[in-house]
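Supplementary Methods, section 5.1.

A reviewer requested that the exact input to the structure prediction be made available. We therefore reproduce it here, unchanged from the version used in the analyses.
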Amino acid sequence: MNIPEKEQPPLSKTRRKKQMEELQALGEELVTLSPERLKKIALAENLRDAISAAQRLTRPDEARRRQMQYIGKLMRTVDVEPLRAALALLRGESASETAMLHRLERWRTELLADEKVLHEIASRYPSVDLQYLRSLRRAALKENEQNKAPRSSRAIFQLLKGLENNGADPEDEPGDQDD
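The structure derived from this sequence is encoded token-by-token as follows.
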């Protein structure tokens, strides 16, 4: 039995307060986003301004609390489902970014264990400077033997990350091809 909208009882004060707190929590999540990620989300201009103002308030004081309440108030006039979907998508991007970092970590480990991985990296990334990568590998192995800080190992990781970010197929991994 569906009750028409006009006949539905009004929400209780507790339920209204809970909805407002949920909107404020959603606003808090938006405030924690980086400006680059925030640009990817379609927001009303006044909400975007309120969020950027809250991002400038770094101390957890009364001004920030009031600003967060104001964001929650503004969110009552906005359809929040697209915002929730956009935030879920952004969380998914961070999961894929984490997977990419794990993949690069695995490549670095394989490279340090076996020099043949150099040729696989060279075939995947023709622009790579093999001589530089080979010297980084030797230096990383030497640092590891001498229990020094892993500067070269970090440099290998940054080099692989740069290669990956400059247009590679994330499904392809060294060592996954059938030769």
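The domain at 12-78 is CATH 1.10.60 (Diphtheria Toxin Repressor; domain 2). These observations are discussed further in the main text.
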